[in-house]
Protein backbone atom coordinates (compact mmCIF):
# COMPACT_ATOMS: atom_id res chain seq x y z
CA UNK A 1 0.00 0.00 0.00
CA UNK A 2 1.27 3.50 -0.75
CA UNK A 3 2.06 5.80 2.16
CA UNK A 4 0.95 9.45 1.88
CA UNK A 5 2.42 12.25 3.99
CA UNK A 6 2.80 16.03 3.84
CA UNK A 7 6.38 17.22 3.30
CA UNK A 8 7.45 20.86 2.74
CA UNK A 9 4.09 21.74 1.22
CA UNK A 10 4.10 18.85 -1.24
CA UNK A 11 2.66 15.35 -1.13
CA UNK A 12 5.02 12.43 -1.27
CA UNK A 13 4.01 8.87 -2.12
CA UNK A 14 6.35 5.98 -1.32
CA UNK A 15 5.58 2.50 -2.61
CA UNK A 16 6.86 -0.16 -0.27
CA UNK A 17 6.87 -3.74 -1.53
CA UNK A 18 7.79 -6.90 0.30
CA UNK A 19 8.32 -8.91 -2.86
CA UNK A 20 11.48 -8.89 -4.89
CA UNK A 21 9.66 -7.75 -8.05
CA UNK A 22 8.23 -4.23 -8.15
CA UNK A 23 4.42 -4.25 -8.54
CA UNK A 24 4.21 -1.50 -11.14
CA UNK A 25 0.54 -2.06 -11.99
CA UNK A 26 -0.61 -1.59 -8.40
CA UNK A 27 1.69 1.39 -7.95
CA UNK A 28 0.49 3.21 -11.09
CA UNK A 29 -3.17 2.83 -10.10
CA UNK A 30 -2.57 5.16 -7.15
CA UNK A 31 -0.13 7.57 -8.81
CA UNK A 32 -1.29 11.16 -9.29
CA UNK A 33 -1.52 12.94 -12.65
CA UNK A 34 -0.14 16.17 -11.16
CA UNK A 35 3.33 17.56 -11.95
CA UNK A 36 6.19 16.48 -9.71
CA UNK A 37 9.41 14.56 -9.20
CA UNK A 38 9.96 10.81 -8.90
CA UNK A 39 12.89 8.93 -7.33
CA UNK A 40 13.67 5.29 -8.12
CA UNK A 41 15.48 3.08 -5.58
CA UNK A 42 16.95 -0.42 -5.70
CA UNK A 43 16.48 -3.20 -3.12
CA UNK A 44 19.31 -1.85 -0.95
CA UNK A 45 17.80 1.63 -0.81
CA UNK A 46 20.32 3.19 -3.21
CA UNK A 47 18.91 5.84 -5.50
CA UNK A 48 18.94 4.89 -9.19
CA UNK A 49 17.27 7.75 -11.02
CA UNK A 50 15.56 11.11 -10.43
CA UNK A 51 13.13 12.51 -12.98
CA UNK A 52 10.41 15.14 -13.31
CA UNK A 53 7.12 15.10 -15.19
CA UNK A 54 4.21 17.32 -16.10
CA UNK A 55 1.96 14.28 -15.56
CA UNK A 56 3.52 11.80 -13.13
CA UNK A 57 1.27 8.85 -13.96
CA UNK A 58 1.80 9.15 -17.71
CA UNK A 59 5.55 9.53 -17.34
CA UNK A 60 5.98 6.60 -14.96
CA UNK A 61 3.71 4.39 -17.06
CA UNK A 62 6.14 4.81 -19.96
CA UNK A 63 8.80 2.89 -17.98
CA UNK A 64 6.65 -0.21 -17.61
CA UNK A 65 5.21 -0.69 -21.10
CA UNK A 66 5.57 -4.07 -22.78
CA UNK A 67 7.76 -2.90 -25.69
CA UNK A 68 9.70 0.02 -27.07
CA UNK A 69 12.22 0.42 -24.22
CA UNK A 70 15.93 0.64 -24.90
CA UNK A 71 18.21 -2.00 -23.40
CA UNK A 72 19.66 0.52 -20.93
CA UNK A 73 16.21 1.64 -19.77
CA UNK A 74 15.18 -2.00 -19.30
CA UNK A 75 18.28 -2.54 -17.15
CA UNK A 76 17.17 0.39 -14.97
CA UNK A 77 13.58 -0.88 -14.64
CA UNK A 78 14.75 -4.36 -13.62
CA UNK A 79 16.61 -2.86 -10.63
CA UNK A 80 13.65 -0.81 -9.32
CA UNK A 81 12.42 -1.87 -5.90
CA UNK A 82 10.51 1.27 -4.87
CA UNK A 83 9.54 4.67 -6.21
CA UNK A 84 8.95 7.87 -4.25
CA UNK A 85 6.91 10.69 -5.77
CA UNK A 86 6.94 14.36 -4.72
CA UNK A 87 4.05 16.47 -6.03
CA UNK A 88 4.82 20.09 -6.95
CA UNK A 89 2.66 23.05 -7.89
CA UNK A 90 4.10 23.46 -11.40
CA UNK A 91 6.41 21.84 -13.92
CA UNK A 92 8.97 24.61 -13.34
CA UNK A 93 9.02 23.85 -9.61
CA UNK A 94 9.48 20.16 -10.45
CA UNK A 95 12.44 20.99 -12.69
CA UNK A 96 14.20 22.97 -9.93
CA UNK A 97 13.57 20.22 -7.35
CA UNK A 98 14.80 17.56 -9.79
CA UNK A 99 18.13 19.35 -10.30
CA UNK A 100 18.54 19.86 -6.55
CA UNK A 101 18.04 16.13 -5.92
CA UNK A 102 20.38 15.12 -8.77
CA UNK A 103 23.18 17.33 -7.41
CA UNK A 104 22.74 16.14 -3.82
CA UNK A 105 22.02 12.43 -4.44
CA UNK A 106 24.03 11.82 -7.66
CA UNK A 107 21.85 8.93 -8.93
CA UNK A 108 23.46 6.16 -10.96
CA UNK A 109 21.41 6.61 -14.15
CA UNK A 110 21.13 10.39 -14.37
CA UNK A 111 23.25 12.54 -16.66
CA UNK A 112 26.23 13.65 -14.60
CA UNK A 113 28.82 16.37 -15.09
CA UNK A 114 32.22 15.25 -13.81
CA UNK A 115 33.60 18.79 -13.76
CA UNK A 116 31.04 21.01 -12.05
CA UNK A 117 33.30 23.78 -10.79
CA UNK A 118 32.32 27.40 -11.20
CA UNK A 119 34.08 29.39 -13.87
CA UNK A 120 36.79 31.96 -13.09
CA UNK A 121 36.19 35.70 -13.35
CA UNK A 122 38.32 38.83 -13.51
CA UNK A 123 37.74 40.88 -10.36
CA UNK A 124 38.31 44.62 -10.04
CA UNK A 125 38.06 45.95 -6.48
CA UNK A 126 36.23 49.21 -5.85
CA UNK A 127 36.92 49.83 -2.14
CA UNK A 128 40.59 50.77 -2.67
CA UNK A 129 42.07 54.12 -3.62
CA UNK A 130 44.12 52.19 -6.19
CA UNK A 131 41.93 49.22 -7.25
CA UNK A 132 43.41 45.78 -7.80
CA UNK A 133 42.71 43.49 -10.75
CA UNK A 134 42.97 39.72 -10.27
CA UNK A 135 41.62 36.26 -11.04
CA UNK A 136 38.63 35.23 -8.92
CA UNK A 137 36.88 31.90 -8.49
CA UNK A 138 34.06 31.05 -6.08
CA UNK A 139 31.43 33.08 -4.26
CA UNK A 140 31.25 36.77 -5.16
CA UNK A 141 31.52 38.19 -1.66
CA UNK A 142 34.11 40.92 -2.24
CA UNK A 143 32.96 44.41 -3.19
CA UNK A 144 33.86 45.21 -6.76
CA UNK A 145 33.11 44.30 -10.36
CA UNK A 146 33.26 40.78 -11.78
CA UNK A 147 33.90 40.25 -15.49
CA UNK A 148 33.31 36.87 -17.11
CA UNK A 149 32.80 34.03 -16.82
CA UNK A 150 35.89 32.79 -18.63
CA UNK A 151 36.11 29.15 -19.79
CA UNK A 152 39.25 28.41 -17.78
CA UNK A 153 41.99 30.01 -15.68
CA UNK A 154 44.40 30.24 -18.61
CA UNK A 155 41.92 32.50 -20.45
CA UNK A 156 41.81 34.78 -17.41
CA UNK A 157 45.60 34.87 -17.17
CA UNK A 158 45.92 35.74 -20.87
CA UNK A 159 43.49 38.62 -20.41
CA UNK A 160 45.22 39.79 -17.22
CA UNK A 161 48.57 39.63 -18.99
CA UNK A 162 47.25 41.88 -21.76
CA UNK A 163 45.64 44.30 -19.29
CA UNK A 164 48.81 44.58 -17.19
CA UNK A 165 51.00 45.26 -20.22
CA UNK A 166 48.54 47.73 -21.72
CA UNK A 167 47.05 49.59 -18.74
CA UNK A 168 49.62 48.73 -16.02
CA UNK A 169 47.15 48.07 -13.19
CA UNK A 170 48.38 46.43 -10.00
CA UNK A 171 47.61 42.74 -9.35
CA UNK A 172 49.43 42.33 -6.02
CA UNK A 173 47.69 41.23 -2.84
CA UNK A 174 46.48 44.04 -0.57
CA UNK A 175 48.86 42.94 2.22
CA UNK A 176 51.82 43.28 -0.17
CA UNK A 177 50.55 46.60 -1.56
CA UNK A 178 50.16 48.17 1.89
CA UNK A 179 53.66 47.18 3.03
CA UNK A 180 55.72 48.24 -0.01
CA UNK A 181 58.40 50.87 0.57
CA UNK A 182 59.80 50.83 -2.98
CA UNK A 183 58.59 49.67 -6.41
CA UNK A 184 58.59 45.94 -7.14
CA UNK A 185 59.69 44.06 -10.25
CA UNK A 186 56.32 44.61 -11.95
CA UNK A 187 57.13 48.32 -12.11
CA UNK A 188 60.61 47.62 -13.47
CA UNK A 189 59.22 45.55 -16.37
CA UNK A 190 56.53 48.17 -17.04
CA UNK A 191 53.51 46.14 -15.93
CA UNK A 192 52.53 48.41 -13.04
CA UNK A 193 52.69 52.13 -12.37
CA UNK A 194 53.72 51.63 -8.69
CA UNK A 195 50.74 53.23 -6.95
CA UNK A 196 52.03 51.61 -3.73
CA UNK A 197 54.71 54.31 -3.50
CA UNK A 198 52.66 57.09 -5.11
CA UNK A 199 54.44 57.04 -8.48
CA UNK A 200 51.11 57.77 -10.20
CA UNK A 201 48.33 60.18 -9.35
CA UNK A 202 45.03 58.68 -8.22
CA UNK A 203 43.16 60.38 -11.08
CA UNK A 204 45.49 58.91 -13.73
CA UNK A 205 45.32 55.46 -12.15
CA UNK A 206 41.51 55.57 -12.07
CA UNK A 207 41.52 56.42 -15.78
CA UNK A 208 43.59 53.31 -16.49
CA UNK A 209 41.18 51.19 -14.43
CA UNK A 210 38.20 52.65 -16.28
CA UNK A 211 39.81 51.80 -19.64
CA UNK A 212 40.48 48.24 -18.47
CA UNK A 213 36.82 47.88 -17.44
CA UNK A 214 35.70 49.24 -20.82
CA UNK A 215 37.90 46.67 -22.55
CA UNK A 216 36.41 43.86 -20.46
CA UNK A 217 32.89 44.95 -21.43
CA UNK A 218 33.71 44.97 -25.15
CA UNK A 219 34.03 48.73 -25.72
CA UNK A 220 37.47 48.68 -27.33
CA UNK A 221 36.45 51.10 -30.10
CA UNK A 222 35.48 53.76 -27.57
CA UNK A 223 38.76 53.28 -25.67
CA UNK A 224 40.76 53.73 -28.86
CA UNK A 225 38.93 57.00 -29.65
CA UNK A 226 39.52 58.33 -26.13
CA UNK A 227 43.19 57.36 -26.16
CA UNK A 228 43.65 58.93 -29.61
CA UNK A 229 42.21 62.23 -28.31
CA UNK A 230 44.51 62.10 -25.28
CA UNK A 231 47.52 61.33 -27.51
CA UNK A 232 46.80 64.36 -29.70
CA UNK A 233 46.42 66.55 -26.60
CA UNK A 234 49.69 65.28 -25.13
CA UNK A 235 51.51 65.92 -28.41
CA UNK A 236 50.23 69.49 -28.59
CA UNK A 237 51.41 70.07 -25.00
CA UNK A 238 54.82 68.57 -25.87
CA UNK A 239 54.35 65.61 -23.47
CA UNK A 240 55.97 63.20 -25.89
CA UNK A 241 56.61 60.36 -23.43
CA UNK A 242 52.93 60.29 -22.49
CA UNK A 243 51.94 60.46 -26.16
CA UNK A 244 54.23 57.51 -26.96
CA UNK A 245 52.73 55.45 -24.13
CA UNK A 246 49.19 56.20 -25.38
CA UNK A 247 50.27 55.29 -28.93
CA UNK A 248 51.48 51.88 -27.69
CA UNK A 249 48.17 51.27 -25.90
CA UNK A 250 46.23 52.09 -29.05
CA UNK A 251 48.43 49.75 -31.13
CA UNK A 252 47.96 46.89 -28.66
CA UNK A 253 44.17 47.33 -28.65
CA UNK A 254 43.97 47.49 -32.45
CA UNK A 255 46.06 44.31 -32.85
CA UNK A 256 43.85 42.43 -30.41
CA UNK A 257 40.68 43.81 -31.97
CA UNK A 258 41.79 42.64 -35.43
CA UNK A 259 42.38 39.10 -34.17
CA UNK A 260 38.98 38.65 -32.54
CA UNK A 261 35.91 37.11 -34.15
CA UNK A 262 32.95 39.14 -32.95
CA UNK A 263 29.28 39.54 -33.73
CA UNK A 264 28.32 42.99 -34.95
CA UNK A 265 25.59 43.24 -32.32
CA UNK A 266 26.66 42.98 -28.70
CA UNK A 267 25.20 40.45 -26.32
CA UNK A 268 25.85 37.66 -23.81
CA UNK A 269 25.33 34.24 -25.40
CA UNK A 270 26.26 30.63 -24.67
CA UNK A 271 26.34 28.32 -27.69
CA UNK A 272 25.91 24.57 -27.10
CA UNK A 273 26.71 21.90 -29.66
CA UNK A 274 26.45 18.15 -29.02
CA UNK A 275 27.81 15.00 -30.64
CA UNK A 276 27.30 11.31 -29.75
CA UNK A 277 29.18 8.22 -30.87
CA UNK A 278 29.43 4.67 -29.57
CA UNK A 279 27.58 5.34 -26.32
CA UNK A 280 29.65 8.45 -25.47
CA UNK A 281 28.70 12.09 -25.88
CA UNK A 282 30.33 15.50 -25.86
CA UNK A 283 28.74 18.90 -25.26
CA UNK A 284 30.88 21.82 -26.45
CA UNK A 285 30.10 25.35 -25.23
CA UNK A 286 31.19 28.65 -26.77
CA UNK A 287 31.11 31.55 -24.30
CA UNK A 288 30.31 34.90 -25.89
CA UNK A 289 30.21 38.06 -23.80
CA UNK A 290 29.51 41.54 -25.13
CA UNK A 291 29.70 40.14 -28.65
CA UNK A 292 33.20 38.66 -28.14
CA UNK A 293 34.04 34.94 -28.04
CA UNK A 294 35.90 34.56 -24.75
CA UNK A 295 36.61 30.85 -25.17
CA UNK A 296 35.07 27.41 -25.09
CA UNK A 297 34.91 24.20 -23.09
CA UNK A 298 33.94 20.58 -23.69
CA UNK A 299 31.97 18.37 -21.29
CA UNK A 300 31.56 14.61 -21.52
CA UNK A 301 28.39 13.87 -19.51
CA UNK A 302 28.07 10.43 -17.97
CA UNK A 303 24.68 8.95 -18.92
CA UNK A 304 23.50 5.34 -18.85
CA UNK A 305 20.07 5.34 -20.49
CA UNK A 306 21.05 5.63 -24.16
CA UNK A 307 19.42 9.05 -24.61
CA UNK A 308 19.22 10.76 -27.98
CA UNK A 309 21.31 13.89 -28.53
CA UNK A 310 18.23 16.10 -28.06
CA UNK A 311 17.26 14.31 -24.82
CA UNK A 312 20.81 14.47 -23.51
CA UNK A 313 21.17 18.18 -24.25
CA UNK A 314 17.77 18.79 -22.60
CA UNK A 315 19.06 17.03 -19.47
CA UNK A 316 22.44 18.77 -19.60
CA UNK A 317 21.22 22.38 -19.65
CA UNK A 318 19.30 22.43 -16.34
CA UNK A 319 22.06 20.55 -14.52
CA UNK A 320 24.67 22.92 -15.94
CA UNK A 321 22.90 26.16 -14.96
CA UNK A 322 20.29 25.56 -12.24
CA UNK A 323 21.39 25.63 -8.63
CA UNK A 324 24.93 26.79 -9.48
CA UNK A 325 26.83 30.08 -9.26
CA UNK A 326 27.28 30.20 -13.02
CA UNK A 327 26.11 33.33 -14.76
CA UNK A 328 23.16 32.57 -17.04
CA UNK A 329 23.36 34.59 -20.29
CA UNK A 330 20.33 36.23 -21.84
CA UNK A 331 20.36 33.75 -24.72
CA UNK A 332 21.39 30.09 -25.02
CA UNK A 333 21.80 28.75 -28.56
CA UNK A 334 21.54 24.98 -29.08
CA UNK A 335 22.26 22.56 -31.90
CA UNK A 336 19.23 20.42 -30.94
CA UNK A 337 15.63 21.28 -30.00
CA UNK A 338 15.09 21.29 -26.23
CA UNK A 339 12.33 19.32 -24.53
CA UNK A 340 10.12 21.06 -21.95
CA UNK A 341 11.36 24.40 -23.25
CA UNK A 342 8.93 26.74 -21.46
CA UNK A 343 9.46 25.51 -17.87
CA UNK A 344 13.23 25.44 -18.41
CA UNK A 345 13.26 29.04 -19.70
CA UNK A 346 11.08 30.10 -16.79
CA UNK A 347 13.37 28.41 -14.23
CA UNK A 348 16.47 30.02 -15.75
CA UNK A 349 14.76 33.42 -15.86
CA UNK A 350 13.75 33.18 -12.19
CA UNK A 351 17.28 32.21 -11.15
CA UNK A 352 19.01 34.98 -13.13
CA UNK A 353 16.41 37.69 -12.45
CA UNK A 354 15.95 38.51 -16.14
CA UNK A 355 14.38 36.93 -19.19
CA UNK A 356 16.39 34.03 -20.65
CA UNK A 357 15.67 32.57 -24.10
CA UNK A 358 16.79 29.19 -25.47
CA UNK A 359 16.94 29.29 -29.28
CA UNK A 360 17.41 26.49 -31.80
CA UNK A 361 16.46 27.65 -35.31
CA UNK A 362 19.04 30.27 -36.21
CA UNK A 363 20.52 32.15 -39.16
CA UNK A 364 23.59 34.20 -39.98
CA UNK A 365 26.46 34.45 -37.49
CA UNK A 366 24.53 32.59 -34.84
CA UNK A 367 23.97 29.59 -37.07
CA UNK A 368 27.71 29.62 -37.82
CA UNK A 369 28.47 29.61 -34.11
CA UNK A 370 26.21 26.60 -33.55
CA UNK A 371 27.98 24.75 -36.39
CA UNK A 372 31.34 25.63 -34.82
CA UNK A 373 30.21 24.24 -31.46
CA UNK A 374 28.84 21.04 -33.03
CA UNK A 375 32.00 20.43 -35.08
CA UNK A 376 34.18 21.02 -32.01
CA UNK A 377 32.06 18.50 -30.08
CA UNK A 378 32.51 15.91 -32.84
CA UNK A 379 36.27 16.49 -33.01
CA UNK A 380 36.78 16.37 -29.24
CA UNK A 381 34.61 13.28 -28.88
CA UNK A 382 36.61 11.49 -31.58
CA UNK A 383 39.89 12.39 -29.87
CA UNK A 384 38.58 11.27 -26.48
CA UNK A 385 37.28 7.98 -27.87
CA UNK A 386 40.66 7.21 -29.44
CA UNK A 387 42.43 8.08 -26.18
CA UNK A 388 40.07 5.86 -24.17
CA UNK A 389 40.64 2.92 -26.50
CA UNK A 390 44.38 3.37 -26.05
CA UNK A 391 43.93 3.61 -22.29
CA UNK A 392 41.82 0.46 -22.26
CA UNK A 393 44.59 -1.47 -24.02
CA UNK A 394 47.06 -0.20 -21.38
CA UNK A 395 44.87 -1.50 -18.55
CA UNK A 396 44.61 -4.87 -20.28
CA UNK A 397 48.39 -4.97 -20.64
CA UNK A 398 48.78 -4.14 -16.94
CA UNK A 399 46.40 -6.96 -16.04
CA UNK A 400 48.57 -9.37 -18.00
CA UNK A 401 51.86 -8.05 -16.59
CA UNK A 402 50.70 -8.34 -12.96
CA UNK A 403 48.92 -11.68 -13.57
CA UNK A 404 45.57 -10.42 -12.33
CA UNK A 405 42.43 -12.48 -12.76
CA UNK A 406 40.27 -9.42 -13.49
CA UNK A 407 40.88 -6.15 -15.29
CA UNK A 408 41.90 -3.47 -12.74
CA UNK A 409 39.35 -0.67 -12.72
CA UNK A 410 40.95 1.80 -10.33
CA UNK A 411 44.56 2.80 -9.62
CA UNK A 412 45.93 5.09 -6.92
CA UNK A 413 49.45 6.46 -6.75
CA UNK A 414 51.23 8.31 -3.92
CA UNK A 415 54.23 10.61 -4.10
CA UNK A 416 56.08 12.87 -1.65
CA UNK A 417 57.49 16.34 -2.38
CA UNK A 418 59.51 18.78 -0.25
CA UNK A 419 62.52 21.11 -0.40
CA UNK A 420 65.12 19.88 2.05
CA UNK A 421 62.35 18.75 4.39
CA UNK A 422 60.46 22.06 4.19
CA UNK A 423 56.69 22.10 3.54
CA UNK A 424 56.34 18.37 2.90
CA UNK A 425 53.26 17.43 0.86
CA UNK A 426 52.02 13.97 -0.16
CA UNK A 427 49.83 13.50 -3.21
CA UNK A 428 47.31 10.84 -4.11
CA UNK A 429 46.04 10.64 -7.70
CA UNK A 430 43.36 8.29 -9.01
CA UNK A 431 42.94 6.76 -12.46
CA UNK A 432 40.23 4.49 -13.84
CA UNK A 433 39.65 3.06 -17.32
CA UNK A 434 38.36 6.49 -18.40
CA UNK A 435 41.53 8.32 -17.34
CA UNK A 436 42.32 10.57 -14.35
CA UNK A 437 39.52 10.96 -11.78
CA UNK A 438 40.51 14.44 -10.60
CA UNK A 439 37.58 14.81 -8.22
CA UNK A 440 39.14 12.00 -6.16
CA UNK A 441 42.65 13.50 -6.04
CA UNK A 442 43.87 14.33 -2.55
CA UNK A 443 46.81 16.20 -1.01
CA UNK A 444 48.12 15.77 2.53
CA UNK A 445 50.15 18.40 4.38
CA UNK A 446 52.61 16.29 6.37
CA UNK A 447 53.24 17.39 9.95
CA UNK A 448 55.13 16.22 13.05
CA UNK A 449 57.85 14.17 11.34
CA UNK A 450 61.60 14.53 11.05
CA UNK A 451 62.22 16.90 8.09
CA UNK A 452 63.19 14.90 5.01
CA UNK A 453 61.92 11.54 6.35
CA UNK A 454 60.10 10.29 3.24
CA UNK A 455 59.24 6.96 4.87
CA UNK A 456 57.39 8.63 7.75
CA UNK A 457 55.70 11.03 5.31
CA UNK A 458 54.49 8.12 3.17
CA UNK A 459 53.20 6.22 6.22
CA UNK A 460 51.29 9.27 7.46
CA UNK A 461 49.68 9.93 4.08
CA UNK A 462 48.66 6.28 3.59
CA UNK A 463 47.12 6.01 7.06
CA UNK A 464 45.15 9.22 6.63
CA UNK A 465 43.92 8.20 3.18
CA UNK A 466 42.93 4.62 3.95
CA UNK A 467 41.43 5.44 7.34
CA UNK A 468 38.99 7.66 5.45
CA UNK A 469 38.32 5.01 2.80
CA UNK A 470 37.70 2.42 5.53
CA UNK A 471 35.08 4.74 7.03
CA UNK A 472 33.25 4.81 3.69
CA UNK A 473 34.52 8.13 2.31
CA UNK A 474 35.38 6.61 -1.09
CA UNK A 475 36.24 3.50 -3.07
CA UNK A 476 39.31 1.33 -2.55
CA UNK A 477 41.64 0.92 -5.55
CA UNK A 478 42.52 -2.38 -7.17
CA UNK A 479 46.17 -1.35 -7.42
CA UNK A 480 48.18 0.98 -5.18
CA UNK A 481 51.27 2.41 -6.89
CA UNK A 482 54.05 3.77 -4.67
CA UNK A 483 56.64 6.06 -6.24
CA UNK A 484 59.69 4.52 -4.57
CA UNK A 485 61.64 1.36 -3.87
CA UNK A 486 61.50 -1.40 -1.31
CA UNK A 487 61.56 0.91 1.70
CA UNK A 488 58.53 2.87 0.55
CA UNK A 489 56.72 -0.36 -0.35
CA UNK A 490 57.32 -1.74 3.15
CA UNK A 491 55.76 1.40 4.62
CA UNK A 492 52.70 0.86 2.41
CA UNK A 493 52.37 -2.81 3.39
CA UNK A 494 52.72 -2.03 7.11
CA UNK A 495 50.24 0.87 6.95
CA UNK A 496 47.55 -1.15 5.15
CA UNK A 497 48.09 -4.16 7.43
CA UNK A 498 47.72 -1.95 10.48
CA UNK A 499 44.39 -0.66 9.16
CA UNK A 500 43.21 -4.14 8.13
CA UNK A 501 42.92 -3.24 4.47
CA UNK A 502 42.90 -6.30 2.17
CA UNK A 503 42.44 -6.85 -1.54
CA UNK A 504 44.66 -3.96 -2.68
CA UNK A 505 47.59 -4.93 -4.91
CA UNK A 506 50.68 -2.89 -3.90
CA UNK A 507 53.31 -2.12 -6.56
CA UNK A 508 56.43 -0.02 -6.02
CA UNK A 509 57.82 1.93 -8.97
CA UNK A 510 61.57 2.50 -8.59
CA UNK A 511 63.68 4.39 -11.11
CA UNK A 512 66.63 2.55 -12.62
CA UNK A 513 70.25 3.47 -12.12
CA UNK A 514 70.09 5.99 -14.98
CA UNK A 515 66.81 7.44 -13.59
CA UNK A 516 65.48 7.63 -17.14
CA UNK A 517 61.99 6.62 -18.19
CA UNK A 518 61.80 3.07 -19.50
CA UNK A 519 64.24 1.56 -16.99
CA UNK A 520 61.91 1.32 -13.97
CA UNK A 521 61.84 -1.71 -11.69
CA UNK A 522 58.45 -2.76 -10.31
CA UNK A 523 58.28 -4.32 -6.84
CA UNK A 524 55.12 -6.44 -6.81
CA UNK A 525 54.12 -7.39 -3.26
CA UNK A 526 51.85 -10.24 -4.38
CA UNK A 527 54.30 -13.03 -5.13
CA UNK A 528 57.19 -10.97 -3.75
CA UNK A 529 58.74 -10.46 -7.18
CA UNK A 530 60.59 -7.80 -9.12
CA UNK A 531 59.43 -6.99 -12.61
CA UNK A 532 61.15 -5.07 -15.40
CA UNK A 533 58.91 -4.30 -18.37
CA UNK A 534 60.15 -3.43 -21.82
CA UNK A 535 60.32 0.27 -22.67
CA UNK A 536 57.52 -0.09 -25.24
CA UNK A 537 55.14 -1.95 -22.90
CA UNK A 538 51.65 -0.34 -22.74
CA UNK A 539 51.48 -1.40 -19.07
CA UNK A 540 54.68 0.50 -18.30
CA UNK A 541 53.37 3.53 -20.19
CA UNK A 542 50.25 3.51 -17.99
CA UNK A 543 52.33 3.25 -14.81
CA UNK A 544 54.57 6.11 -15.98
CA UNK A 545 51.55 8.26 -16.78
CA UNK A 546 50.01 7.73 -13.34
CA UNK A 547 53.34 8.18 -11.53
CA UNK A 548 54.17 11.39 -13.41
CA UNK A 549 50.73 12.78 -12.60
CA UNK A 550 51.25 12.00 -8.90
CA UNK A 551 54.67 13.69 -9.10
CA UNK A 552 53.20 16.80 -10.77
CA UNK A 553 50.35 17.00 -8.27
CA UNK A 554 52.73 16.66 -5.29
CA UNK A 555 55.17 19.28 -6.57
CA UNK A 556 52.36 21.76 -7.25
CA UNK A 557 51.00 21.31 -3.73
CA UNK A 558 54.45 21.60 -2.18
CA UNK A 559 55.26 24.81 -4.05
CA UNK A 560 51.95 26.37 -3.08
CA UNK A 561 52.49 25.51 0.58
CA UNK A 562 56.12 26.65 0.55
CA UNK A 563 55.41 29.91 -1.27
CA UNK A 564 52.50 30.74 1.02
CA UNK A 565 54.73 30.23 4.05
CA UNK A 566 57.52 32.35 2.55
CA UNK A 567 55.13 35.16 1.58
CA UNK A 568 54.02 35.54 5.17
CA UNK A 569 55.97 38.30 6.90
CA UNK A 570 57.36 37.42 10.35
CA UNK A 571 55.86 40.71 11.50
CA UNK A 572 52.31 39.48 10.83
CA UNK A 573 52.29 37.07 13.76
CA UNK A 574 53.35 39.62 16.38
CA UNK A 575 50.49 40.88 18.62
CA UNK A 576 50.05 44.63 18.34
CA UNK A 577 51.72 44.90 14.91
CA UNK A 578 48.94 45.58 12.42
CA UNK A 579 49.11 46.79 8.80
CA UNK A 580 49.80 50.42 9.77
CA UNK A 581 52.70 49.58 12.09
CA UNK A 582 54.16 47.04 9.62
CA UNK A 583 54.10 49.71 6.94
CA UNK A 584 55.71 52.24 9.29
CA UNK A 585 58.48 49.77 10.24
CA UNK A 586 59.21 48.83 6.62
CA UNK A 587 59.24 52.48 5.52
CA UNK A 588 61.55 53.44 8.39
CA UNK A 589 64.09 50.62 7.95
CA UNK A 590 63.63 49.87 4.22
CA UNK A 591 63.11 46.11 4.61
CA UNK A 592 62.80 43.13 6.94
CA UNK A 593 66.56 42.45 7.06
CA UNK A 594 67.23 45.94 8.39
CA UNK A 595 64.54 45.46 11.05
CA UNK A 596 66.27 42.23 12.12
CA UNK A 597 69.58 44.11 12.48
CA UNK A 598 68.01 46.94 14.51
CA UNK A 599 68.25 47.15 18.32
CA UNK A 600 65.28 47.54 20.64
CA UNK A 601 66.00 51.26 20.98
CA UNK A 602 66.12 51.72 17.20
CA UNK A 603 62.81 49.88 16.77
CA UNK A 604 61.24 51.98 19.54
CA UNK A 605 62.26 55.08 17.57
CA UNK A 606 59.66 54.31 14.92
CA UNK A 607 56.50 56.42 15.25
CA UNK A 608 53.69 54.48 16.95
CA UNK A 609 55.96 51.77 18.43
CA UNK A 610 56.33 51.72 22.23
CA UNK A 611 59.37 50.30 23.95
CA UNK A 612 57.41 47.25 25.16
CA UNK A 613 56.19 46.56 21.62
CA UNK A 614 59.73 47.11 20.31
CA UNK A 615 60.95 44.46 22.76
CA UNK A 616 58.22 42.05 21.56
CA UNK A 617 59.19 42.67 17.91
CA UNK A 618 62.89 42.16 18.66
CA UNK A 619 62.19 38.93 20.58
CA UNK A 620 59.93 37.54 17.85
CA UNK A 621 62.50 38.23 15.10
CA UNK A 622 65.36 36.67 17.09
CA UNK A 623 63.54 33.68 18.56
CA UNK A 624 64.94 31.16 16.03
UniProtKB/TrEMBL annotation:
Lineage: superkingdom: Bacteria
Xref: SMART domains: GIYc, HhH1
Gene Ontology annotations of biological process type: nucleotide-excision repair; SOS response
Keyword DNA damage tagged: yes
Domain GIY-YIG: 33-111
Record keywords, A-Z: Cytoplasm, DNA damage, DNA excision, DNA repair, Excision nuclease, SOS response
GO molecular function: DNA binding; excinuclease ABC activity
Residue ranges of domain UVR in the record: 221-256
Coiled coil: none
Every UvrC family homology region profile domain range: 271-496
CC annotations in GO: cytoplasm; excinuclease repair complex
Subcellular location, record wording: Cytoplasm
Cited Pfam families: GIY-YIG, HHH_5, UVR, UvrC_RNaseH, UvrC_RNaseH_dom
Protein family: Belongs to the UvrC family.
HAMAP family referenced in this protein's UniProt entry, alphabetically: UvrC (MF_00203)
NCBIfam families per the UniProt record, alphabetical: PRK00558.1-5, uvrC
Subunit structure: Interacts with UvrB in an incision complex.
Chain's role: The UvrABC repair system catalyzes the recognition and processing of DNA lesions. UvrC both incises the 5' and 3' sides of the lesion. The N-terminal half is responsible for the 3' incision and the C-terminal half is responsible for the 5' incision.
Protein name listed in UniProt: UvrABC system protein C
Originating organism: Microbulbifer rhizosphaerae
Amino acid sequence: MPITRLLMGTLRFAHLTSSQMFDSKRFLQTTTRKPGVYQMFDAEGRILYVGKAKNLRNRLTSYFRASGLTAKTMALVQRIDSIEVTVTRSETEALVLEQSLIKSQRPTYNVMLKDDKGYPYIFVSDKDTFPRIALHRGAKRKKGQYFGPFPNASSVRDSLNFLQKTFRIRSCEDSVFRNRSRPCLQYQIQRCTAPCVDFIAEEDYRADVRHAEMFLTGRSDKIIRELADEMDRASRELEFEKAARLRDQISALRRLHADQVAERSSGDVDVLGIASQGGSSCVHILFIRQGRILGSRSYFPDERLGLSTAELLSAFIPQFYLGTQREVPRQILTSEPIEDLEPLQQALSEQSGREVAILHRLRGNRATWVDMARQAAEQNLGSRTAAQQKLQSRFESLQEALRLEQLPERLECFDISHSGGEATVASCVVFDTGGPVKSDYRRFNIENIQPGDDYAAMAQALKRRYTRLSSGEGRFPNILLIDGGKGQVRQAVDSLNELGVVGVQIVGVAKGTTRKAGFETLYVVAGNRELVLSADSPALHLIQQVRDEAHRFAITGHRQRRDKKRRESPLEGIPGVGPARRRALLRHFGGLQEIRRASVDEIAGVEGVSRKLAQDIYSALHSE
